Structures are given as structure tokens and as C-alpha cells.
Amino acid sequence: MSIFVDTSAFYAILDGDDARHSDAARAWRAVLDSQETISTTNYVIVETTALLQNRVGMDGARLFAADILPALQMIWVDEGTHRSALHALLVAGQRRLSLVDCVSFEAMRARGIETAFCFDPHFAEQGFRTLPETAGRRETNRG
Q1: pTM reported for the whole predicted model
Q2: What whole-number distance in Å separates Cα of residue 17 and Cα of residue 15?
């Protein structure tokens, strides 16, 4: 089994001032202790790095690269996944749904990943199990 990690979780882990930081840190420890494969896409890495750089600074981006990236199995997004996700985004027509989210959904479904560590309610709306359990709430802190 594998757990997918979204930008919303990475950001909450690394920003001590984030309202969800303590929940994120507790969930991250549980994910690491679970011995499950921890996955994300290169699109999430780009989004997370840009968000950290903008909101926290380069120290946050460096911490992410040094301490978190080594624990991850990278899912490299190919052209077919990108096209499918773009199509899904345009069909959904939701302003707050991002291309990165749609790529995440496509990548998770293609690999049979059923659980996402996130604070983005779109994952629960798409039928994925979310960690922590409160992740399905309609509050986000992403840019």
C-alpha cells in the first residue's frame, strides 16, 4: 500500500505557524512509522517548493529538499497523465481545483493509491481516504 502526500500537508508540516502544523506533524510521524510507501508527483514538488519559497523563504525550501524529499517515492508525470488531468480540470470547471490536484488524482488512480495525506478537501470529494481524518473539511491554506 502507498500513501500520497499533497502540497497542503507538506506546507503544514514545514510551517510552524500554520494552523494545522501540530496535526500535520503528528500525521507525518504516523505515516513514517507506518512503513507504507510515501509517494508524490514531481508537480506537487514544484508546487510545494514554490509555496515554501514564497511564504517561508529559502530555508523552508532547503529543509523540504533535505529532510522530506529523501523519504518519498517520486511519481514522474508523463504526457498522458498531464493531458488526462488537464481534460479533467477543464471538464470540472471549478475555480479552486488546480491542475496539480487533477494530476495527483490521475496518478493515484493509475497506481491504485487510495489514501492521501492532505488538508485539501478535493481528495475526499474524489473518493480518496484522507489523513488526518479531519482533512475533508473545507478549509485550505494553499496559494
Answers
A1: 0.90
A2: 5
